[in-house]
Amino acid sequence: MSMTPSRPILDLVLHDASLSGVYRIARADRVLAEAPAGMVAASLAGAMAKEEVIRRIAAALDFPDWFDPNWDALQDCLCDLSWRESTATRLLIKDADELLADNPGDWATLLDVLTESAQFWAAQELPFFVLLADPHGDFDLPTLPGDAPA
Fold first, then answer.
1. Per-residue pLDDT tens for 61-113?
2. Strand locations in the chain, DSSP E?
3. Phi, psi of 111, rounded to the nearest 5 degrees
4. 107-114 contacts at long range (C-beta below 8 A, 24 or more positions apart)
5. Which domains does the chain show, CATH number per domain?
6. DSSP classification of residue 1
7. pTM of the model
8. Cα separation, 76 vs 55, whole angstroms
């Protein structure tokens, strides 16, 4: 009888469309090591203006050239990912603590856009995960199932 190695729990979770959503994670390095192929990352370090935040997310997901960095366009593109090869979306966002501290209104809008996009894809039964690296537990978000403390 042949034995196949078990898949890391994060890999299993990130394939489950019913769990699609926006989550906090303690350790970005662990997620990157255990996540399925196709995980992309965006750093928001120093991104204080909403346009820069949106541009960095757009760059990570390789948005089309016509993309205009505003909240409506971000939502539109996140809900129409037809130009991407993968049918699943897994985005890791690092260094978002400055945005939360300095621009709480933009933080709230970003979370709304990401959450609505995840709900849209969950209804389509396709995985859509946004993982926010939060080693200090500052974000008021659910923890990704299977994530371990820092």
1. 999 988 999 999 999 999 998 877 777 899 999 999 888 888 899 999 999 99
2. 21-25, 40-43, 89-94, 128-133
3. -60, -40
4. 109/50, 109/71, 110/50, 110/53, 111/22, 111/141, 113/71, 113/74, 113/75, 113/78, 114/22, 114/78
5. 9-133 (3.30.370.10)
6. -
7. 0.89
8. 14
